[in-house]
Amino acid sequence: MRVGVLTGGGDCPGLNAAIRGIVRKGVEVHGFDFVGVRDGWRGALDGGIVPLDVPAVRGILPRGGTILGSSRTNPLASEDGVHRVRETLADFDVDALIAIGGEDTLGVAAALADEGIRVVGVPKTIDNDVAGTDSTFGFDTAVNIATEAIDRLHTTAESHTRTLVVEVMGRHAGWIALYSGIAGGANVILIPEQPFDVDQVCGWVENRFKIRYAPIVVVAEGAVPKEGQMVVKDSALDEFGHVRLSGVGEWLAREIADRTGKEARTTVLGHIQRGGTPSAFDRWLATRFGLRAVDAVKEREFGVMVALRGTDIVRVPLAEAAAGIRTVDPALYAEFGVFFG
Amino acid sequence: MRVGVLTGGGDCPGLNAAIRGIVRKGVEVHGFDFVGVRDGWRGALDGGIVPLDVPAVRGILPRGGTILGSSRTNPLASEDGVHRVRETLADFDVDALIAIGGEDTLGVAAALADEGIRVVGVPKTIDNDVAGTDSTFGFDTAVNIATEAIDRLHTTAESHTRTLVVEVMGRHAGWIALYSGIAGGANVILIPEQPFDVDQVCGWVENRFKIRYAPIVVVAEGAVPKEGQMVVKDSALDEFGHVRLSGVGEWLAREIADRTGKEARTTVLGHIQRGGTPSAFDRWLATRFGLRAVDAVKEREFGVMVALRGTDIVRVPLAEAAAGIRTVDPALYAEFGVFFG
Amino acid sequence: MRVGVLTGGGDCPGLNAAIRGIVRKGVEVHGFDFVGVRDGWRGALDGGIVPLDVPAVRGILPRGGTILGSSRTNPLASEDGVHRVRETLADFDVDALIAIGGEDTLGVAAALADEGIRVVGVPKTIDNDVAGTDSTFGFDTAVNIATEAIDRLHTTAESHTRTLVVEVMGRHAGWIALYSGIAGGANVILIPEQPFDVDQVCGWVENRFKIRYAPIVVVAEGAVPKEGQMVVKDSALDEFGHVRLSGVGEWLAREIADRTGKEARTTVLGHIQRGGTPSAFDRWLATRFGLRAVDAVKEREFGVMVALRGTDIVRVPLAEAAAGIRTVDPALYAEFGVFFG
Amino acid sequence: MRVGVLTGGGDCPGLNAAIRGIVRKGVEVHGFDFVGVRDGWRGALDGGIVPLDVPAVRGILPRGGTILGSSRTNPLASEDGVHRVRETLADFDVDALIAIGGEDTLGVAAALADEGIRVVGVPKTIDNDVAGTDSTFGFDTAVNIATEAIDRLHTTAESHTRTLVVEVMGRHAGWIALYSGIAGGANVILIPEQPFDVDQVCGWVENRFKIRYAPIVVVAEGAVPKEGQMVVKDSALDEFGHVRLSGVGEWLAREIADRTGKEARTTVLGHIQRGGTPSAFDRWLATRFGLRAVDAVKEREFGVMVALRGTDIVRVPLAEAAAGIRTVDPALYAEFGVFFG
């Protein structure tokens, strides 16, 4: 049996660990043959197929990124996409595909499975927002990096009586903000799931200054203020009257500085959250996912993805991951209210 | 309501995060009053009671160790232990107790609960072997430290064609060895749950050398060879014929060196596995455990401990934790056989 | 003898280590008495004097920031500044002052010394640009943080065929950019000392893509393109025709993307470069500086600062530090040209 | 010109960075051709010569260990050693050799240079004890690792009222012990250069307990007690009356426990001190050494090694490094006495 492996979407620590697990077990236990599909679905469209064997996966376990490359190409965006994927698989005698990715990549996988292509999914994303699994690899590493950054900012905040706003990743889900904010001892945590009240945020900041500690505000990139609160000042508009600030973090720091009369600074962590060596847990989870995904191929169970349920790895229909993202439950967010302000 | 908090057993990253969560929510939400019990159950026996309020828990979130001190004192070991604990609680008007600890500490808590003392448990241990919960805080930090050490040893192993044996913590359960061994890419992982065959271990080591990579062997301190195999050789004796090795790691390294004819070295990680700042996950889990434990007191649900079940925090009878430790399932261990040798 | 200690300017890992060294040796060896001056020169102006003794410095060695607070207040900016500093010292019976800071703080110290105030300087700055010393504490930590971030970005760059621009601190001197760029394996390093040629930078970036590796560009916040090259496009202007991009990093990424036709992203490391626990070397250097500064007070040698010369700690006139900053020698920069492109 | 590169002695973070610097500049600037000599001097004896070009050094900068392998083989130990080295060089048309190593490797290089072989040396060692240079790469990484371990042990020490003894590398020189001990806030630091008094050590430990802080003792593996003090007590004997302790750290912990009546534990850091990714400074220094070493070959200046002098890289005769090791000056050690006890 010849199996293709591809990694799609944003890169994420643990991808290489998953690839290694798949190839090691596939070759050594199940007797499979492997090829790599370059740059996510793009390779499946364009015939970007490369060799993939046990020597190719030696030493990659602790390395971030993906040896297969990635892209955000969506084969469903072009009319003949599915047809071309099918052709590529036929041309290279690929019997089944293991697709490692987030909601988008797995959504494509689900659609291809519906078309009869033999595919197994592996969920990954630093955002932790794939539905159907308790967690995804990449998330733990991202949270550790963000927490370490918040730890560092505490000392600057305390030495200078200023507010520090940290913008972390999370366009649609606030998992990184919530975990790193709680772990880092932030005084305010703002997530996309819950529009925030700027007055309340400033109140929390003022409270914090009263006990002589400087406030740290963690905000997910996708968080937004309540309707009507993002009144844009002249100085914050570009020549066409559009907001010219680059992100919610910068906007919020300006608001806080204006309202409290005390200096506020922003740090945007950006891509350092998704790079570098994976945490031990992410290597562990990615390895387990890889091993179980290749088992699913062996058992000819397609149209599924592997998922974490408690401490077990289970299989769920790909459709679950494609149905929408997993967001932070308001009740969970509310649990931490005691730390705000 | 006045609540006492104690930390017992070996220290563990996240203890302070749990204490902070308990005190912040207890004071600010439930209106409780707190005292600290010094040095685990010893303080409960001897009246070692100290003040504990919100200012006392400021800044402790990222700090390892425990501000309350710890010990392995067991009040059940002396005849009047339970009586003395009861007296201390009465003397200081303590209405309920939150006990943070591993199997031993929680076992004592279970016994005291049976005697009518109002106690809530919080599981902790770097060994991850408390029954009744999916995981305990401290474990993730320990695994990260061990994995980072294994990462470092790989480069030495590769540069010198030698076997490196790493002894990690785990007297009765192999969780740290298994997780860090898989995350670190070890070639052999030995756990207490499964007596190992020295011949097989040496075979794996030899295989590894054949592909020009140096072998890393991770061994839990409680792992043992199959019956009869720990025959002490002459070379493991001192000049008077006595065994002179300190742990299984050192014994195994010598065996491997003797049998393969290639140099082998041991590293014993020891206490660095349980110190220092907790990982983000351990701070998160400890904080959640703390918040929920104090809620249990508020709801007057005693004789229970908080526990992780999937992504939820639940309450389980203390008796569950006291019934025995959680060990590595042979089936889980077997999953990783593909990476051995 | 009563000695005041103050920390001025931006905060910097190692300040607490220096304070601890001063107080431990001053009290235990020289029999001095200490007070802390709050928030840099502001406390010297306004009577912000706090107790400072051996218990106050326990446990602060590994902590970033400064227990004394800091500010950029300059007493020379107001007419009666020197007079007020003198009064504060007299009011609190302070015989001598140890001022820890960068060029600005030490410049004030030099001026006060000229006015007869007994002051000893200790150089610190993450920028490494204080004249008269081989190095300052804080720099090594900042370089380690920036290098770790660059390490992380490599994996993202490689997985996605994009250029990553990293903006690091350094308004007037390129030390952090140069050290972290070399240590992190950057393909382009741009420093304030040498205006860069955008065409050349894009050429280097293109070269890098040719060998299938993604380029990393490290740019100091104070780096500027050659005259005339920062032609601002319409889309980069605000409503008054002014450049609206926030820093050179963002501007450069846009230029590179426009010219190469390939995606480019910016990461601005910002304040995480100056926070958190100091590296071992910074703790060592700060401790040595502290010990030697208090020796200078004992020997009544004022108007000097301690400095690193090779592996020795020496004393140099404060005027040396006040005379201007230490920048990167063009010859040193040129040494690394082989790694560009 | 064809240049051979070899790495000898214990492995050390930064070796790959040095190799990369040599090859990149040698090929791209000087037009040299390179070969690698496998496993230190062993390859020079046995014809272990491998290709070494620019693609071979891509991506190795952040990796510990050495891509060329290492050994402690000494060609001067066999009568025809020099002859065989000369033959290997002739067989493979190698015109000059760059030897990267510590005292032993550089001593061999000095002897070969005396025999007319064209050799340039690059000093490396985690022990920092090569004479003729202010510092060697590898040392900063080792100190950071040891300091981080000491940081972790503080929390355990404080939580349990016990003494923790940390044994670090340093057979003949106490640099790692001194730097990491000072950076980690140890209460006692023991180095090979100065035999220690066990009574004094125990006195310091007792002092520390009095102020309720637990003592950390850092001891270099080569440190020894004053003459006559290592009397082996009954408790240090096994049941047959024989010594059963493995190193000075373990011996000392037992002595302290016996004399103070309080628990004492040992941690032996071992090989994790020499592995893993190099610190930023070590990558910087190794890169600079590499660039300058290949310049020396270009300028046909042989029989020298590159060395750090202040912030400059200079050349010194290889004989300087071969003359003996650089140890800790008693005056420097005495400077830190204030922190002991």
Question: How is this structure best described in words?
Answer:
The structure is a homotetramer. By secondary structure, chain A is an alpha/beta fold. Chain A has two domains: about 1-140 and about 280-320, Rossmann fold (3-Layer(aba) Sandwich); about 140-275, 3-Layer(aba) Sandwich (Rossmann fold). Chain A has helices at about 15-30, 40-45, 80-90, 105-115, 140-160, 175-185, 200-210, 250-260, 280-300, 320, 330-335; strands at about 1-5, 35, 50, 95-100, 120-125, 165-170, 190, 215-220, 265-270, 305-310, 310-315. In chain A, the strands form two sheets. Chain A has a seven-stranded mixed β-sheet, sandwiched between helices. Chain A has a four-stranded parallel β-sheet with strand order 7-8-6-9, sandwiched between helices. In chain A, strand 4, helix 4 and strand 5 form a beta-alpha-beta unit. Chain A is elongated, with a radius of gyration of 22 Å. Chains B and D meet through helix 5 and strand 9 of B and helix 5 and strand 9 of D. Chains A, B, C, D: This is Pyrophosphate--fructose 6-phosphate 1-phosphotransferase. Chains A, B, C, D: It is found in: Cytoplasm.
